[in-house]
Amino acid sequence: FSPLVGSGLPLFTPRGYQLRQNLTDFVWDLMKPYGYQRVWIPHIAKTDLYKTSGHWDKFEDDLFHVSSKKTDDAFVLKPMNCPHHTQIFASKPRSYRDLPLRLSEVTTVYRDENTGQLAGLTRVRSITQDDAHVFCRPDQIEAEALAIYRIIEGFYSVMGMSLKARLSVRDPGAPEKYLGSDEVWTSAEKSLMNLLVSVDQEYEVGEGEAAFYGPKIDFMAQDSIGRKWQLATIQLDFNLPERFELEYVAEDGTKQRPVMIHRAILGSLERFSGVAIEHFAGSFPLWLAPTQIVILPVADRHVEFAKALATELESHDLRVDIDDSTESVGKKIRNAEKMKYPRMIVVGDKEVEGGDLTVRIRGQQDQITISKEAFITKTVEENKKRLS
After folding, report:
1. Which of 216, 279, 332, 362 is flagged as catalytic?
2. What is the mean pLDDT of the chain?
3. Contacts of 132 by beta carbon, 8 Å cutoff, 6+ apart
4. Active-site residue 129, yes or no?
5. 44-46 and 75-77: which strand pairing?
6. Model-level pTM?
7. Does residue 61 have a pLDDT over 90?
8. Catalytic hit among 84, 130, 131, 136
């Protein structure tokens, strides 16, 4: 964080960036089999977009306003991405054959949080979302929601976090808080409940916890020290398609409204990064670690060999650092242990002369001796399978 940049606006160093990228790559790998497509949107929009969506009336005080000296149009930094994505849907005529349309994006939104509410990475003003929106027919809702559930389930099982579900529904005593008819809300809530029942997922009902545009399933993840975090979500939205007059031509030739499903797997990259750092206590699994392997030359004469070895490992998409400082090898090992690198390779005369590698695996007391080829094969396989 920099006071010149501003509070609540974190800056990510190369290691921090790599952690974020590893997380987003994993989510994308889970999404690809389900037919998602990537899109891109700008970081500002005219206020008209959010007045049409209904967000303006509810969140005007939480927006960063942007002025221009060259136009009378009023702009804001985008606080969410869904209204932009409706305009991609609306950019051309759509048929029932085009649905579901699954749009995905990793992008940053901005919200003017009170300074007193900001907290490290878990509450910031620049919020990077692994966002996606599915436009589908009503008869496709449960199948699409199930696909999202499987993505969430796959992600958190690898992260070693247990999940509990909350079905967030309306507050029946305050109908004025929500957009849309009672009939639409009843149908939406039933669809999400059917999903949870179909996968035998235990859930609690959060009365009054729904978004103003539709019901949702919020997933509460429990980390290694027992704390609970609301991270992933599946949200149904019958209202934005209505407000933006989105249409598709149905099989019978009539024009119909699509249903919009909002979903997030991580919640936000900033918040999840903060949670993950503490969940793993910095001992990231091999696939997630910003640096997977550190090479420790015993003396200066071993540095060139270490560089050549690093280049070869990097050619297999492994992330490698070299400690070529003048410290003793014992001090280098202690420093590497403090950094909690998953793998350490000590390089001396034997290795330079073509001998097997001496490898220390984090969490194992005894070092192992293994051929370079076998080490590469084993490490690449563990990395692809996202193992520790």
Report:
1. 216
2. 93
3. 31, 36, 102, 103, 104, 105, 262, 263, 264
4. yes
5. antiparallel
6. 0.92
7. no
8. 131
